[in-house]
Amino acid sequence: MNRLKWIILPLLVSAGLLAALWLMLVLASMIPNAALRDNMEQSALSYRTKEAFSFENGQRMNAVSDNYADAILLNISWNMGIGDPAIASLDTKYYDGEALGESIGLYLTVMDAGVKPNTQYTRYWHGSAAFVRLMHLVTDVRGMKYCGAVAAGVLVAFSVFVLVRRGHVLLALALLASLATVQIWNIRLSLEYQPVFLICFLLTPLYLWLEQYGDRYLVVLSAAGGVLTAFFDFLTAEMVVILVPLILVVAVREAEEHLGELRKNICLLFCCGIFWLGAYGGTFLAKWTAASLVTGENQFRAAIRSAGERFGGSLAGEGPENPLLRLPAALAANLTALGGGGARVDLRCAAGVLLIAAAVAGSAWYLFRKAGQKDVAGRLLLLLGAMVFLRYLVLNNHSYLHAFFTYRALLSPALALYAWMALLIRNRNRKSSFNQFRKVKRKRT
After folding, report:
1. Which of 37, 78, 102, 270 has its CA 20 to 30 A from that of 341?
2. Is 53 helix (H, G, I), strand (E, B) or coil?
């Protein structure tokens, strides 16, 4: 019976959450387009003369504004207000502007130039469209971008507050340092960059609170995170939603001296990962199924074809087609973006990032490690951080072509490194047990 609870509760939470999110999307679709028109026109005008991808800080790949994705999101959001709200929220489509491009397609759509949607985009939920429609009652896309960035900042600040309140100042600093490493402030450049970070730091305080009451709650939160990520994100830096909270849970438990054995923790991380991935995939399957029913067309075919391209499709002249070259190129592209490089792949920049990381890790090991220390936390943090690099290899086509936003997933290995350093410093300077100073009420299951 106890094992059934581990399975049934996450499934019920996932199903209930997805139903609530879809209802939110339907309700947002019921807002009349006339109420959004003034601000939507301002948004459409702001994209009319922009390139699909614009550099906002010289030629740095980590400061590229994805106007292409945002124009499509706004276009889909507008079209959700046409026809039956329930159907429109599932049969997601837009006018692509044909030879003129997506930005002009948005402009012509909002300006009622007589164009009709000509492109299906049902493989994603486009959950952010709900907030696009709600926010356009009071502001345009520029206001939305800054509101999203401020909201992310507030949520990060709350996570930092929770860590500091529990006595983990060094871990709070590690979190801030990792966010600075991936230039988190640049999520203000695009609406589509923001959802995963908003979700991540909405859930992180919950992970840090509920981990005190048993591992089962971490599994439930992971399942909820999978649903939220699939609903709102379009494959940007999706893994931060699961990895960042788990890294902090491992680090906090180690700092408070109740992390436990390696095997038990690996089982927990595996369960969290499986339920997150299952909820993530199940949310996509639900969308493809529902969209197929309302359109009368098989939406699985297009979705699976697109997924195949993300794994190993052609780079269309943008990079190496040989898999032996493309796999390391996908890693190098993301490291280049992290290092502020101006080319798709700058080997010197990528190598520099790796050398700096190795130097920092090596220095911490040399200066702060105690002889004979059993570093269970270090192994777990290494495992969690490595998941991002595995993602780059598996989705090598996507990771190479879109490194200008997928590089932000490196937040997780950066946090794993900084958190490990914080733990080394703390353990080196610890004069007595943490629990002599602070007792945390726990209910273990």
Report:
1. 102
2. strand
